[in-house]
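P.,

For your records, the input lines for the assembly:
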Amino acid sequence: MTFEVVTIFPEYFESPLKVGLLGKAIERGLIKVRLHNLRDFATDKHHTVDDKPFGGGEGMLFKPEPLFRALETLKKQPPKPRIVYLSPQGRLLTHEVARELASCERLVLLCGRYEGIDERIREHFVDDEISIGDYVLFGGEAAALVLIEVLSRLIPGVVGCEDSVAKDSFADGLLKHPQYTRPRNFLGYEVPEVLLSGNHAEIERWRRRKSLEVTFERRPELLKKARLTEEDRAYLKHLKRERLRLYLALVHYPVVNKEGRKIASSFTNLDLHDLARVARTYGLKAYYLVQPLSDQRAIMEELLAFWLSGPGARHNPDRAEALKLVRLRRSLEEVLQEIREAEGQPPVMLATDARPLRPALPYEEAGRIIRSGQPTLILLGTAWGLAPEVLERADHFLAPIPGALDDYNHLSVRSAASIIVDRLLREVV
Ligand SMILES: C[S@@+](CC[C@H](N)C(=O)[O-])C[C@H]1O[C@@H](n2cnc3c(N)ncnc32)[C@H](O)[C@@H]1O
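Structure tokens returned:
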């Protein structure tokens, strides 16, 4: 495979191309890297390659003419190259994209600098744009080096043990399992026993499971495309059951009314049913109703009895299955105590609020907490929302569900809860 790098800093590549497996691959002729100084394609005596952007604005841009000349010169030589511009706006470089590019015999890698390149070159003379991540570098050279390394690893013979490439993270869609080397005991930290057992089948099984665990915890979205066996799927199911320790509490007291005064709100039958069904569907461990008022509790108890052991249970057992998760408690304190006893640790409390008052924990982060197996309690308010004394106790705030077109986001607590739980568990369930 041949890489033709167009850059204003050919010296940037000097040492990276000499060292390690990349250096050896070049020495052995498995890959070729040719460096082309863009300035050699400028025609003025100062070798100018940049100019100010039309319309004003900061920075300089690569002019089209030297780039065009460089590309035309390289295109004339066989085999036909694919012209790749390294750009933060390009396709994200993943293992799959790398595999696709590795099938090309010859790549031209265009390294931008300053504010980038004239748009007409990008639009009419570039075949592909590749980004190495969602951040901005000074120039395309570091990105070109990353691309050269990634593609070289996929070329047969470059990495001595090809098996190790096949077992790398991403190769089969999963992250790699943890690895250990000597000493067996390092500062009191032991190597997992199974790796010392000599039982290769057991070791392979352990590694596969660890690979699934690491991927589930850190990059669950990869599991959707990974090549999984029936045994993998069964293990992932088991992992989800074990890790998912999510609870929901619908708080009737203390909440605030329209004037911001602390009140206890009354019970809503729809909340009881709909949230219990959400809890059962998404595998939550319990759905707490926090209500200290005894007359309100009496109504809830009567309804629960109807559905759990009365005619409702016989008429609609599926509903009983969901309502079994309901726990009627007098205070949030009681709820916390109960979860602490069941789980052996206090839950991470995630508060919800329709108003974007506080910095919110991104849903992705909250999902990571849940996947790590920490017990987590979602706090939902009734009336005009959770009272400040509850909000203050929360570990994190979840962002309000925003309106799609404007600021209107007045959802019922049932709708908000369904959306929140779905967003949290999208990657888990
Ligand atoms: C300072 S950047 C220009 C950024 C450009 N003004 C923008 O906002 O999209 C200069 C050059 O660095 C390279 N570059 C910067 N970040 C990159 C990334 N994440 N992946 C690939 N190339 C990158 C590109 O070649 C780019 O033309």
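Two observations worth noting. The longest helix spans residues 200-218. Residues 86-89, 111-113, 115-116, 131-133, 135-140, 143 surround S-adenosylmethionine (CB under 6 Å).

Regards
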